[in-house]
Amino acid sequence: MRILGLDYGSRTVGVAISDPTGLIAQPLKTITRERESMLRKTLSEIQEIVREYSVDRIVLGLPFNMDDTEGERARKTREFREKLSLRTEVPIIFMDERLTTVAAQEILDDSGIPRSEQKKVIDQVAAGLILQTYLDDVHNGKRS
User: Fold this and answer.
1) pTM as predicted
2) pLDDT tens digit string along 76-100?
3) I need a surface site. Which of 4, 22, 33, 82 has the fewest CB within 10 A?
4) CB 10 within 8 A of CB 37
5) Which pLDDT score, from 0 to 100, does residue 52 have?
């Protein structure tokens, strides 16, 4: 059972994948695009990853505001989910992604990775955190 984690942003999508047992998330890649509206290549890359890794489901980070409301980024993430669901036949589950980028930044800082290099991997680390939270919830019986 493989699960894909996604951190959708305006110009990047961080991608993480679980190990075959569904216990551990690992950063995989960052998909970039020139403009937010240019999604065709991004969707195709995700579709290929789903096929290559035999993904059973996708966990997509949903950016709630700190007051539990949804703003413009959440709306765009929901639109992205709709487009992605037309390309893949696996369930797409939302996961609260509040503060995952901040946590990813702290992990990278603690790892000694220079700030100039962090931009290349921060989105995939955030995707890994989103996915790991989901995997932990499943393991602890909070989700199925």
Assistant:
1) 0.91
2) 999 999 999 999 999 999 998 877 8
3) 82
4) no
5) 97
Strands of 55-62's sheet in order across: 25-32, 12-18, 2-8, 55-62, 92-96
For residues 133 and 2, is the Cβ–Cβ distance under 8 A? no
User: What is the DSSP pairing of strand 92-96 with strand 55-62?
Assistant: parallel
